[in-house]
Amino acid sequence: MSDSELQRRNRTAVWKMLWVSVLMFGFGYALVPLYNVMCRKLSLNGKTSNQVAASSVAMDTSRTVKVQFITNINGDAQARWSFSAPLSEVTVHPGQSIHLEFKAQNRSGENRIFQAIPSVTPSEAADAFHKMECFCFQQQPFKPYQTQSLGLTFYIDPKLPTKYKTMTLSYTLYDVTETLAKKTA
Amino acid sequence: MAHTNTLTHDDHHGSAPHGWRRWLLSTNHKDIGTLYLCFSALMFLVGGLMALVIRAELFQPGLQFVQPEFFNSMTTMHGLIMVFGAFMPATTGLANWMIPLMIGAPDMALPRLNNWSFWLLPFAAVILVSTLFLPGGGPNGGWTLYPPLSTRASMSMDFTIFAIHILGISSILGSINVIATILNMRAPGMTLMKMPVFVWSWLITAFLVIAVMPVLAGSVTMLLTDRHFHTSFFDAAGGGDPVMFQHIFWFFGHPEVYILILPAFGLVSEIIPTFSRKKIFGYSCMVYAIASIAVLSFVVWAHHMFAVGLPLKAELFFMYCTMLIAVPTGVKVFNWVTTMYRGSLTFETPMLFAIAFVVLFTIGGFSGLMLSMVPADIQYQDTYFVVGHFHYVLVPGGVFSIIGSVYYWLPKWCGKMYDEKWGKIHFWLSLVGVNLTFFPMHFLGLAGMPRRVPDYALQFANYNAMASVGAFLFGFSQLLFFYNIIRTIRHGVPAPAKPWEGAEGLEWTVPSPAPHHTFTTPPQIK
Fold this sequence. Notes:
The complex is a heterodimer. By secondary structure, chain A is of the alpha+beta class. Chain A contains 2 helices and 9 strands; from the N terminus they run H-E-E-E-E-E-E-E-E-E-H. By secondary structure, chain B is mainly α. Chain B is 67% helix and 1% strand. Mean pLDDT of chain B is 93; it is low at 1-13.
């Protein structure tokens, strides 16, 4: 192999490898949408749909499902908020629509905004949890010391496999006031 | 391949720069290899000092020496510095020194790039270590940089992210160089399946680096944009998911552990045949085993996160794939043992380290198998059992193989023979120290002691005291290692071109010390 031939081959190798590196950098980012698709297809992390569900389905009165409710407040937002479910659990027929009013209070003396993020356990049942109305669809602005009721209307899909008899819906309250302020600033 | 003056060195016409310019401007693979190894030794001491801070604090329950925040930044920095500052540069340095000598090439394929990939490292290291002096202290959320701790950490996290970017660029460029060298610069007749196992292991490692270091760069860039540019990759309130970071990180992280250990496999595969006076048993099996470990490393990442709430099917998939890795690894251990079987063994210092590697790495492999089982892992995760496991594969595994290979090639590098007596003292002190440090950690973990905490319940006191004594013994016996090296360079007996009776390979055909330029006329391989 001549010198120039070797130089050419080295140059080709470098460019190829650099391209692989750039592609793999992109692949790291491609993992983000891929992860979301995988979560949906494999029911990975209990995320529920953020779409408003269609309202009427046939009720399956042959069985009941127990739905439990949990509320959490993220991190140091606990000092500024209170957040509670109206009851700890409800027993429903699949297809039966249920309306609940959650309660939240801004305990600080300033205008604050929160975003609630739902999560369903077992995560495989998350797809069967349909929301017709939910306060988690939007960010919720609160005035100082204001208390608000937060509506949730949902039903359980009759297609839910019969092995799931209990499911837990957890809402985590995230205070997004500062994040929003930074974004608009 | 009849090239005699392939590479246009700056110092090709007898006007080699002297003093600091020789090192700063070097394009010589041997000089750059030396720089890499010295840098790695320095980082090994810095990271080791941090480990000793950790062990000093854990000697007794309660808080004695440091605050919990500083303790946490010690565990974080110890991990980052050892992985990116000590380990990867050490194996890259060995690759720089030995690969051209082993394949009969005059230098690395891209000498100037080689210089640059080394000189990025000191800057990255300074940035990383400087975080300890920033307001808020060094990064303290663990070397894995999980959000939300990392997205909410102080400004030291930004510096850490930039340091990781630079370290990543350095290792990618180094790997490109290794691949170009191995693929294009082999001496005539040196077919791929005639290459030494060390060269093979580095070829595969380099591909792993190019495949996964950019993914790490991507994930820390996402952290950076989450911190400062209002993206919400990992922020649940903005629609992101902190668990996703773990997936992306470990997609890098698992191949990364093989980036650390595969060159070690290669090193041991050079040392054991020499002192067994036999050819390596099952050469092609060894090559295929390394390749299959590398391929499998891409499909096992979630075994680092069995406890995050994966669906059952995913847990089973990752569990079985993880167990599958034991097969090629077992092949390698089998072949090392079989190479020694009925060989005429002698136990010089490099061989002692290599044998200790085989035994102790296997112990680490077995605890890895225990951790691969999901139900057991859910019990063991985040305990000292995990710490014991990965230190067994990395310290008496990886570090021992590097120390052994330094003793093995030191006569070639500096033309002097080290003192066998001091080498053996160093070995036995290290062996006792390493086991005293890390073996009790298994018991601590099984008893439920969590990792990354500066204080612990009273019932863990005895094993922790043992581990701390062992850590100081191991740490200080490494000073003996550096003393040995300096003593060899200053007062060693001149070494012949081939100091080891059973050694084979091109590197032993050049004089000791290896002259500045070797194989300017390529050797003929039969």
